[in-house]
Design brief:
heterodimer; A: alpha/beta; Rossmann fold; 2 domains; 7-stranded mixed β-sheet; 4-stranded parallel β-sheet; 12 helices; about 40% helix; globular; B: alpha/beta; 11 helices
Chain lengths: ~300, ~300
């Protein structure tokens, strides 16, 4: 039986705690099946944090300074607003200021729907993209999670791992989908990768052919051939992100892609309004329908706009 | 606006005094504490001049008036991990920090203890187990506590001011240290001022009483080095513990200036006490040697080609 993302996280964590003298800091570790079955029950090195959201990351940073390479888990990314200060102001700056980094693996779990509304909806990895010193990624597959963990163990700074509950039960890998006759290139991030894969067949029925280039690393975002060539050929692109669109990852990446390729790239993320509890008021990861609408609009504009320079 | 500020009754140069401590203290220890006070005092007096003359590239947070606390603690807890806040010159120098590296740091040279990145408020030197402060008040306190959790065999001394204890994450840190019985000595250098706002305008409670409510042993005393040494010797045997130390900042919160004379200047009081112990000549020699050495080092570093 293939391992899911949750299985993978749990196995990596157990190995780290048992073999590397690692630590895991979190609140309510036993909650909801040991944090959605991502934490090994009763493993050594589990540190139950008090409900002190602002000081909690400080404890983990202190442990990182002492060489324990802690995993720090936030069960909801909404807690990042309280936890962010020591992480970006201290841990992320340490290498630049003092010449020695603070290796801390920050697991921040995004969620939406199910009545979470304005409290625990949301995805805020852009907070960390804005400040220097932290790697930012959003793994959605088992192999991607291994890649992220290996990257963490090979460097000495903090890394923000923007997880999403939608990925936990998935065991599928997500290879890029690239074709020579594509009309648009889609760059989905985090849970929007699942929504995008749902949108593809709808678009194909509308005769719109898509490339899909999956985005794992938000920072650094590498503008290499894998990322740019499909866009150059398709002529337009769409970056899709579960976080807020304004000043978020989607706009940031779209800007970089446009500058690098001179092709129009649109950003699509959460709308600029607070999510509500009721289903009709949710504001989460762009739905397949929103992705379809945005892609159709891009392709229509492309066919009516003056040709882009080579 | 609240009523005019009043000084708490516990705020005096002899608060918590235990008569006879200085007399009972071995002379070499008394003089060693004074030697460390001199190191910090003369360093900061030179930093004051350098700042006033525009030779420093960083904001400077001077320890003048507060030197006795770190000087005394360092004689008890040498080798501990040290976490300080922005006013950390005295702690750095008392725990064995390199004078030239700190001068270079203030000047902004790559040979500074943080290569010019940290300046006065962000001193960091793993050679003496001193971990830098990033700048936000009290943010280092949970970090110090986390270090103590992760490395339980190594005691930690965490310095901060009376403003820092009002930060919300301070309480979380205190609670975590109490819950896990961590080897942390919390040291509040209580100069009664948050920049210029006295404690009585900011809060109605005393931090050492808060610490006790967490089950942490706590002492509230003046900055008499013999008194500090006595209590830290006791407290350090069973950590976590909390030391609130009433002290006076002689100069501005930041920069080289003075609004008026301090309520007391422990440095001068200690010199008088040493004289009373028959150690006047020895103390004068220590002071003269310290002053000459530090003035020489400042002069030398300021003459490096890339300085100023």
């Amino acid at each position: 039986m293939e391992k899911s993302v949750a299985d993978t996280i749990r196995d990596i964590t157990r190995d780290h705690l048992e073999q590397n003298n690692g630590l895991l800091f979190a609140q309510c570790i036993t909650a909801v099946g040991w944090i959605q079955n991502t934490v090994p029950p009763h493993a050594p090195g589990l540190v139950e944090l008090p409900m002190a959201d602002v000081s909690g990351p400080g404890f983990a940073i202190g442990a990182a300074i002492m060489g324990r390479r802690p995993i720090f888990v936030l069960r909801f990314q909404s807690f990042l607003w309280l936890a962010v200060s020591p992480l970006v102001n201290y841990a992320a700056k340490a290498r630049d200021i003092w010449g020695k980094g603070v290796p801390i693996f920050i697991r921040a779990i995004a969620s939406e729907g199910n009545g979470t509304g304005p409290v625990h909806s949301g995805c805020y990895h852009n907070l960390f993209m804005h400040m220097p010193g932290t790697l930012v990624c959003a793994p959605m597959t088992p192999n991607e999670y291994h890649e992220v963990w290996n990257a963490f163990m090979q460097q000495d700074g903090p890394i923000l791992v923007s997880e999403h509950r939608r990925s936990y039960l998935s065991s599928a890998e997500m290879p890029d989908l690239v074709r020579n006759d594509a009309d648009v290139t889609l760059y989905p991030i985090s849970a929007s990768r699942f929504s995008t894969l749902e949108a593809i067949p709808i678009l194909e029925k509308m005769n719109i052919r898509c490339n899909v280039v999956h985005i794992l690393w938000l920072k650094p975002f590498q503008l290499n051939a894998r990322v740019m060539d499909p866009l150059k050929r398709s002529g337009c692109g769409l970056v899709i992100d579960p976080a807020f669109e304004i000043a978020g990852a989607s706009q940031s990446l779209a800007y970089d892609l446009m500058l690098a390729t001179r092709r129009p790239v649109k950003a699509l993320g959460q709308e600029d309004r607070s999510p509500g509890v009721a289903n009709r008021l949710e504001n989460g990861t762009p739905t397949p329908q929103r992705i379809v609408e945005a892609a159709v609009q891009l392709v229509r504009n492309k066919t009516t706009a003056p040709s882009t320079p080579p | 606006m609240s009523a005019p500020s009043t000084r708490p009754a516990s705020r005096s140069a002899d608060h918590g005094a235990l008569p006879g401590l200085a007399e009972l203290c071995p002379s070499d220890l008394s003089l060693e504490m004074f030697r460390r006070m001199c190191r910090a005092r003369h360093f900061d007096e030179q930093a004051f001049l350098a700042s006033r003359n525009g030779w420093l590239q960083s904001l400077v947070y001077l320890s003048v008036g507060q030197e006795s606390i770190a000087a005394a603690i360092s004689t008890v807890m040498g080798g501990a991990w040290i976490f300080t806040q922005h006013r950390g010159h005295a702690a750095y120098l008392s725990f064995g920090g390199d004078i030239e590296k700190l001068i270079d740091e203030l000047i902004g040279l790559p040979t500074g203890c943080c290569r010019g990145m940290g300046g006065s408020p962000c001193i960091h030197d793993p050679n003496i187990r001193m971990i830098g402060h990033e700048g936000l008040i009290a943010e280092h306190v949970p970090i110090a506590v986390g270090a103590a959790y992760a490395s339980p065999d190594s005691p930690v001394v965490c310095f901060f001011g009376d403003g820092a204890v009002e930060e919300d994450y301070f309480f979380g840190a205190l609670g975590f240290a109490a819950t896990h019985n961590l080897k942390v000595l919390f040291v509040c250098e209580d100069n009664d001022l948050s920049v210029l706002t006295p404690t009585s305008d900011r809060r109605s409670w005393e931090i050492h009483e808060v610490a006790r409510s967490f089950g942490i042993r706590a002492v509230d005393v003046a900055d008499d080095p013999w008194l500090v040494h006595h209590h830290v010797s006791e407290l350090s045997r069973r950590l976590p513990a909390f030391l609130n130390c009433r002290t006076c900042r002689c100069y501005w919160h930041v920069g080289a200036g003075q609004d008026g004379p301090p309520e007391w200047d422990r440095f001068n009081i200690v010199k008088q006490q040493l004289a009373g112990l028959g150690l006047e000549n020895a103390a004068a020699t220590i002071e003269a040697e310290s002053k000459a050495e530090i003035e020489r080092l400042w002069k030398s570093r300021l003459q490096t080609p890339s300085a100023t």
